[in-house]
């Protein structure tokens, strides 16, 4: 029981340190192989409503992003066919007509179970004439924020103390109950012994008198 408590505690500890980071497609950390058309409130007006940071970049080329983490979620619009790959391994191919794209309101792409570490995400068109409208992406990484670490550690330690005290009381309670049970058993055994002895004594004493006991 104590071991599973510790495992739960560690899981909570790791979870508390994971954080999502949202990157707008206008970020300098995203590399486009070709020309991009910035669609924002100035250039595209009302069409940017509902987009992250009210902007989307249209491109015929590929999109590259390096990140260190364990998951990513990308939001894009697509007209044509493109491949999604991480570290050179293709995760899948997306194929959408303009009508499908409009109907689905953007294609969510995700890979939530990467090994924690550095990764390269590449979104590349595979047929000529493909247009990718890239809105934003989110990646999950271990928080480098000191406050978060301290918070998680303090939380973990307090949680650990509370759990340890809980376990201690449960064990103590169980032992106490066992002790009381055993003492009661012993007491009743003694009482029974006394009663029996008295009974024998009375039987012995009253032997021959015929008096009721
Ligand atoms: C990060 O965002 C994704 C998608 O919105 C969500 O499913 C996931 O639980 C989030 N992870 C964390 C650690 O907040
Ligand atoms: C949102 O867009 C503006 C203007 O393009 C940019 O300066 C800002 O950094 C963007 N915000 C985020 C969170 O990327
Ligand atoms: C829209 O993009 C153009 C071209 O990059 C830029 O000059 C303009 O400031 C942007 N407008 C907004 C509101 O971000
Ligand atoms: C992204 O990562 C790849 C693989 O590690 C590396 O070859 C490339 O130079 C990186 N690009 C940038 C801009 O950091
Ligand atoms: C994409 O879909 C269209 C229509 O659904 C189809 O004609 C085309 O062959 C597909 N292309 C690929 C590469 O799967």
Automatic annotation (TrEMBL):
Q: Which domain of life is it from?
A: Eukaryota
Bilayer-crossing residues are: 150-174
Point out the signal peptide segment.
1-16
- Keywords, ordered alphabetically: Membrane, Signal, Transmembrane, Transmembrane helix
Protein name per the record: Transmembrane protein
Native organism is Mycena albidolilacea
